[in-house]
Amino acid sequence: MALCIVNIGQLVTASGPARPRVGLELRDLGMMRNAAMLIEGDRIAAVGQYAELRSRIPLVANVIDAEGRCITPGFVDAHTHLVFAGNRADEFERRIAGATYQEIAAAGGGILRTVKLTRATSEDDLLAAARRHRDWMLRGGTATLEAKSGYGLDHDTELKMLRVLRRLNEEGPARIVPTLLAAHTIPPERAATRNEYVRWIADELIPEVAVSGLARYCDTFCDDHAFTVDEARIVLAAAKQHGMGLRVHAEQFRPGTGAALAAELGAATADHLETATDETLVQLRDAGVQPVLLPGSVFALGRTEYPPARRMIELGLAVVLATDFNPGSSPVPSMPFMLSLACVQMGLSPAEALLAVTINAAWSLGLGDSIGSLETNKKADFLIHEFSDYRELAYFIATPMRLRVFIAGREVTP
Q: Going by DSSP bridges, is the β-strand pair 3-12/217-221 parallel, antiparallel, or unpaired?
């Protein structure tokens, strides 16, 4: 049965050119008022003024009155660490008391703490935990998300995490894009043979994952306490050779840690970029690499150095916002909160922030031709908000809003 949404006060279509949006394009929401949307199956059949679409509504259609409210595309979260066991609430308390992220990691905490817990947890239990995290995101309007491995750092656990992502994607309703992040940090048992670990990822794990189709992308954490640029190059070059897309954790704490490499190898994204310089930003722009900005991790770590988002837009980069949801540096699953942080701390307008979590995020995952905007023939992923003005998304900070979430034309109740 066809679905028709009528009496839409503001319809943010995010329509426009078939590519990521840059510059002033990030302020063009493709807004329609007094609009309607006709959905057939899992796709949008028509979008326009109600007066124009009224004659096309089938007599047996399921008609939903939006009551003058705002409708936007479903959110696309392009950087998450969805699958993990346990939590690190004690480390959160230590950071509040003054310990740094690096100090906690050096003492055996941080990523390695979660690795230990995740290795010891069964696949079914990891699936249950990931489903819970996914449901938090669904309630906040996330319809599609990228999710990484990286809390295994050994063969069996990395594959276990990727299988969890496959199972969760198959059960739906959220769409999940899997990424291999075995190059997250050096596991303790490999501390004395880190070169062998890097070669193992490149020569053995990546070919196996690529053949199995368990991951669409490969990521590396390029940082002083993780992998060097040269080590990351070995991993990413192998992934590229095996047909995987590339993503890079880069320049989170120090310049010169990965952004230039992302440009060199033609990565889809360079993520974090809190310390990126104009020179590297120009390299990313010229190589068509999208910056994925993660203000939640800056906020949760108690830092003040947010990514230079305004400068990125001035230089013509197609910015993306994401949560970086993880148990340590960003236990933040909420995309609406990312919008607020981007506006308040990074100087984005509400419109720029909204396009950064919809159409630009979709393109960063290679899905811009099917999701991220409300246009004919695209997947019917959309949100009916409580309010009538899209700016209220960022304005009412951390508000427990009652969204109506639709994915592929079906309403979701997580």
A: unpaired
